[in-house]
Design a protein that fits this description.
Mean pLDDT: 96
Strand content: 15-25%
Structural class: alpha+beta
Low-confidence stretches: none
Shape: globular
Distance between the termini: 36 Å
Helix content: 25-40%
Largest sheet: 5 strands, antiparallel
Strand order of the largest sheet: 1-2-3-5-4
Number of helices: 3
Bound molecules: adenosine monophosphate, zinc ion
Order of helices and strands: HEEEHEEH
C-alpha cells in the first residue's frame, strides 16, 4: 500500500528518479542524496510502512538479505572495508522520512566514526532494574 504524500513511496515506485543500485518487485536500493560516506545507500520497500513497528516480518527478512547482497557488492566494487547498517525509528531516533528504510553506509579505513556514543557506566542494580522493566 502506498502513501500519496510520501516522497520515498514515489522514489521506490519510480515516480521520482533516483540513482538506483538495485530493484526487484518489492524493493529499491538508491544512493542517499546526503551521504555520510561514498556509496551511502538506502533500501526502500515499495509499500509504505512508517517504521520498523509497522513492517511485516517477511519484509524484515528480505531486507536484511538485500543488505547482505548490496554490502558484498560495495565491498567488491567500492573497496570499503566495513559497513554500518543504520535504521532510525521515530523523531527522537533521528528519523526524518517516515517511510521505513535501512541505511547502508560503507566504511573505509579513514578512522572516522559514523555511529558512536559515549558508553554509560550503569551499576549492576540499574541493569537488573532495566531488565526487569523490559521483561518482567
Ligand atoms: P532518516 O534520517 O533515517 O529518516 O534518513 C533519511 C535519509 O534520506 C537521509 O540520509 C537523507 O539524506 C535521505 N534523503 C532524503 N531525501 C532523499 C531523496 N530525495 N533521495 C535520496 N535520499 C534522500
Ligand atoms: Zn512511503
Amino acid at each position: 500500500m502506498r502513501n500519496e504524500e510520501c516522497i520515498f513511496c514515489k522514489i521506490a515506485n519510480g515516480e521520482i528518479p533516483s540513482n538506483t543500485l538495485y530493484e526487484d518487485e518489492g524493493y529499491r536500493v538508491i544512493l542517499d542524496l546526503g551521504p555520510a560516506t561514498r556509496g551511502h545507500a538506502l533500501i526502500l520497500p515499495k509499500d509504505h510502512y512508517a517504521d520498523l513497528f509497522e513492517l511485516p516480518d517477511q519484509n524484515c527478512e528480505q531486507m536484511l538479505k538485500i543488505a547482505k547482497k548490496m554490502g558484498a557488492l560495495m565491498k567488491e566494487r567500492l573497496g570499503c572495508s566495513g559497513m554500518n547498517l543504520v535504521q532510525n525509528n521515530g523523531e527522537s531516533a533521528g528519523q526524518t522520512v517516515r517511510h521505513f528504510h535501512i541505511h547502508l553506509i560503507p566504511r573505509y579505513d579513514d578512522g572516522s566514526r559514523i555511529v558512536a556514543w559515549t558508553p554509560g557506566e550503569p551499576s549492576a542494580e540499574e541493569l537488573a532494574e532495566i531488565r526487569d522493566t523490559i521483561c518482567g
